[in-house]
Structures are given as structure tokens and as C-alpha cells.
Amino acid sequence: MVPSACLPALLGTAGTGWLTEAFAPSFMQRALVAGLVASVAAAVVGTWIVLRGLTFLGDALAHGVIPGLALAVLWGFSPILGALLSALVMSGAVTLVGRRARVREDVGIGLLFVGMLALGVVIISRSQSFSTDVTALLFGDILGVTAADIRGQVVAAVLVVGASLVLHRPFLALAFNQDKARTLGMRPALAHTALLVLVAVAIVASFDAIGTLLVFGLLIGPPATATLLVRRVPLVMTVAVALGASAVVVGLLISYHQGTAGGATIAGVAVLEFLVVLAAQETRRAVREARTRRGNPSGGPNRPHPGAEPAPERPVTPIDP
């Protein structure tokens, strides 16, 4: 991690005054470091959420940790412990509803999502500073992070990245072939629980910066954008980290110069990156199809050379392991 005292010198070499002005204050330097650390943790674990198609569960889990965080604020114990306890309760409840109740899993997740959010607000309403605490939990306060907050974020991010490296094979098998994972003795249920715990830790690493409501932007936005650009899982993670970091830098610059909310601006930039890449790819596809139609004015299929063999069909896989 780059010490805060070194940031002005590093940024000064980049040139432009609007950049150095924004990151000259110490609170902006802390916000930058906190945002970058949060973006790394969110991008790494968010990649697995996107690849497994668990975005709704990820969103629900982001809200499901609120009761634990609320208890931590109210009683003064570790937010990480509170979030992990809430995440375990949430994941256990989702599993129970999906296996035992005669309702679809998404229905159970939706109800638990609302229930955990409501429980968190009820708990935090017991606090003397109800409005301030709720706002901080839901939307974060990236401009108010302290050095101690950043140290906690770094620990959480290292845990997320380290565990993701150690559990890479089980997570990969779980994402692409759960039956094969069972055959290889990888215990998919245990890997799934470990993933949910890592999501909770990543949320804790991010909620100071952008809050539990907006963390979904960093958790899903950069990995989803990365899947549009690259195919290999390690590359998806790398590109997602870069996109998340760029969203933090651009979001903080906009926030400083335009006076907007820092966390919301960062989340908005992360979503905008996805929309821009998607629009660019759709435009390129439309142009390519238009050129194909111009080269085949009859509108019929392009016929191969009489002596040529037809190309074998190959399934289209969005992401390679």
C-alpha cells in the first residue's frame, strides 16, 4: 500500500492540476486508498458471483449483513465478526428455504433480503444517532475513513484474495461443473459456504467506502464488464480489478470537483463502465452484420466453395475456465 504522504508526489508527476488538487487533501488520499482496497476485494470475489450467476444472492447478502453490522455499531464489537455472523445466518436460511420449503429459492432469497434489511434498521434504530448510523451503513462515508479503517480493509482484502487463490480450483469446478466437483471430492456445499463468507468479508471491506446498498456496484459491475472483454477467469479478475480501481479514481474526481456523494458516484461510474462497453460491443456487432448484409445482397446464406467442407459447429462458451 502506498503511504498517504507519498501520494501527492506521485500524483504530481502525472501532470494535470485538477488531479493533484483533488487528491492533495489528506482525507481524499485516505478515500483513494480505501476505495482502491475495496475495489480489489470486491472484484476478486465478485468474479465468482458473476460466473456462477448468483448476482441476486450477492445483492441479498450485501443487505443481509446489515443486522450484524448494526449490532456491531450498537454494542461496539468488530464489524467483521458481525457481518460474518449475519452472512452465515443468511446463507443457512437460504439453504433451508431452498431445500425444505415448497417455494422457489429466489422467492426465499427475496423474502430474506427484505427481512434482514428490516431487522438491521430496527436494530440500528435503538442507537442514539439513528439517522447518522443508518446513512453510514447504507451509503458509506468514504471521505470520513480513518487510517484504522484502512488497516482493517487491508486485512479483509488480503483474506479475500488469499482465500480465493487457495480455493481457486474448488470455486472453478463449482462455477463450471458442480457434478465434476462432487466426483473429485471437492464438496461443493462447503465451497459454496466459503464463497458466501468471502462475499461477506468483501462487503465489510467496502461498506466504509460505499455502504452496503451501493457495494453491489463494485461487487458486480467490474466483473460483469470484464466478462464482456476477456474470457479466461484470471484475466476476468485482473480486468475487473483495473475497472474497479478506475471507477474509484474517476468517481472521487467527479465527487470532489462536482460536490457529489463519493460512494454513489463510484458505484455509478462502475455501472457506466458496463453500459459503455456493452454499447460499444453491440455497435460493433451491428456494423459487422451490416457489412455482411452488404456483401450478400440477396439476403440468403453465404454459400461455401463447392469443394469446401462445412465448418464443424462449436458451442459458444462465454467464459473459459
Show the helix and strand layout:
Elements: H1 7-12, H2 17-22, H3 26-51, H4 55-64, H5 66-75, H6 79-100, H7 105-124, H8 130-139, H9 147-166, H10 168-176, H11 178-183, H12 188-229, H13 233-258, H14 262-295
Helix pairs in contact: 3-9, 3-12, 3-13, 4-7, 4-12, 5-6, 5-7, 5-8, 6-7, 6-12, 8-12, 9-12, 10-12, 12-13, 12-14, 13-14
Transmembrane segments: 32-51, 109-130, 150-168, 189-207, 213-230, 235-254, 260-280
Region (Disordered): 287-321
Main location: membrane
Describe, in plain words, how this protein is organized in 3D.
By secondary structure, this protein is mostly helical. It has a single domain, classed as ABC transporter involved in vitamin B12 uptake, BtuC (Orthogonal Bundle), CATH 1.10.3470.10. 77% of the residues lie in helices and 0% in strands. The protein has 14 helices and no strands. The longest helix has 42 residues. The radius of gyration is 22 Å and the shape is globular.
Summarize the structure.
The chain is mainly α and 321 residues long.
Instruction: Work out the number of β strands.
Output: 0
The CATH class designation is: Mainly Alpha
Q: Give the mean pLDDT.
A: 79
The main sheet comes to: none
Tally of domains? 1
Core attributes:
single chain; 321 residues; mainly alpha; ABC transporter involved in vitamin B12 uptake, BtuC; 14 helices; 77% helix; globular
